[in-house]
Amino acid sequence: MTMSKGQIGRRLLGFALLGAALALGGAAGAAEYGQPAAWELGLQKSVTPVMDNITWFHNFLVWLVTAITVFVLILLIIVMVKFNSKANPVPSKTTHHTLIEVAWTIIPVLILVGIAVPSFRLLFLQLDIPKADLTIKATGKQWYWSYAYPDNGKFEFDSLMSADKGPRLLAVDNEMVVPVNKVVRVQTTAADVIHAFAMPSFGVKIDAIPGRLNETWFKATREGMFYGQCSELCGKDHAFMPIAIRVVNDQEFAAWTEAAKKKYATAPANSYASAGSAAQ
Ligand SMILES: [Cu+2]
Q: How far does residue 205's CA lie from ligand 1's centre (Å)?
């Protein structure tokens, strides 16, 4: 059975409508900041300059890939309709066409350059850490995180998953607390095996490796609770060592550090950092 042009058109329209419905569904599902939403298709809502850029770059690539795919699909359909053995019983013997060959070499090169420019700009934005307002050291352990604040009173505390608080599998007993609109340098390491410190809405994902100090940064532009997870398979409780960051204003941060200095006056007994880390 062969499809008429009308049937092909209707089928393509069906695919386009399906795509549009999925895109709208994704937008509707992404309601909350700082955590995944049901039926979410896109990235989590951005709250840092780096994540703004990642989101833009992601969308740019999606539309670029879509345009290229649709273009190739159209070419294939033209070939199938116009040059099948019934419609075109005597094929052309053409083997070379200089203009087309130059075009299909130059145009993809230009597309790749168009991708490379924003890609490298984003890479430098991520890797070139601006002057930091404070540093926090995150140490991955089986199976929880420890956060040290060397600039704010040298305290360190453990952050374990909390089943009593919501959201499920993301909430912790002691959150990392940071001030809003400040550049926070995050140094990551691990005490046992490789973990990874990831915070989707901040555009942060960096390995935490024993004996090594990695660093990244973020500047959260919105107050609230934000959730991430260890993103390197690290053992049986890998899924149960979430990362929770509370972004607060400067006064709240100052009050929190004062309280934290007292509350966490004695470093955790099993602290890798307090035992004299070789990574430093
Ligand atoms: Cu881990």
A: 12
